[in-house]
Amino acid sequence: MARVVVDVMPKPEILDPQGQAVANALPRLGFTGISDVRQGKHFELEVDDSVDDETLAKIAIGFLSNPVIEDFVVRRLS
C-alpha cells in the first residue's frame, strides 16, 4: 500500500472568497505580515502499489477537482 496526497487549489485567476475572509480576519486577531491566503482541499489516499500516476491523475481530474477553476498536485508519500 502507498499513501498518496492530492492537493487541490483554486487557479490563480479565480476569486477565493474563503481565503479572502481568512486574510481579512488575521489582522483583527493580531496577526500581521500576511498579505494573501488561498484556501484549497487536501486529500490523502491509500492505494495499492499497482495504481499508476495516470490513474491518480484521472481520479484528481474527474472526481477530486474541478479542472475549469482548480489546479491539483499529486504526490506519493510512500
From TrEMBL:
SUPFAM superfamilies: PurS-like (SSF82697). Pathway: Purine metabolism; IMP biosynthesis via de novo pathway; 5-amino-1-(5-phospho-D-ribosyl)imidazole from N(2)-formyl-N(1)-(5-phospho-D-ribosyl)glycinamide: step 1/2. It catalyses: N(2)-formyl-N(1)-(5-phospho-beta-D-ribosyl)glycinamide + L-glutamine + ATP + H2O = 2-formamido-N(1)-(5-O-phospho-beta-D-ribosyl)acetamidine + L-glutamate + ADP + phosphate + H(+). It is an enzyme of class 6 (ligase). Gene3D superfamilies: Phosphoribosylformylglycinamidine synthase subunit PurS (3.30.1280.10). GO terms for biological process: 'de novo' IMP biosynthetic process. InterPro entries: PurS, PurS-like_sf. Pfam families: PurS (PF02700). Its EC number is 6.3.5.3. GO terms for molecular function: ATP binding; phosphoribosylformylglycinamidine synthase activity. The keyword Ligase applies. It is found in: Cytoplasm. GO terms for cellular component: cytoplasm. Keywords: ATP-binding, Cytoplasm, Ligase, Nucleotide-binding, Purine biosynthesis. Part of the FGAM synthase complex composed of 1 PurL, 1 PurQ and 2 PurS subunits. Belongs to the PurS family. Part of the phosphoribosylformylglycinamidine synthase complex involved in the purines biosynthetic pathway. Catalyzes the ATP-dependent conversion of formylglycinamide ribonucleotide (FGAR) and glutamine to yield formylglycinamidine ribonucleotide (FGAM) and glutamate. The FGAM synthase complex is composed of three subunits. PurQ produces an ammonia molecule by converting glutamine to glutamate. PurL transfers the ammonia molecule to FGAR to form FGAM in an ATP-dependent manner. This is Phosphoribosylformylglycinamidine synthase subunit PurS. The lineage of its organism: Bacteria, Bacillati, Actinomycetota, Actinomycetes, Pseudonocardiales.
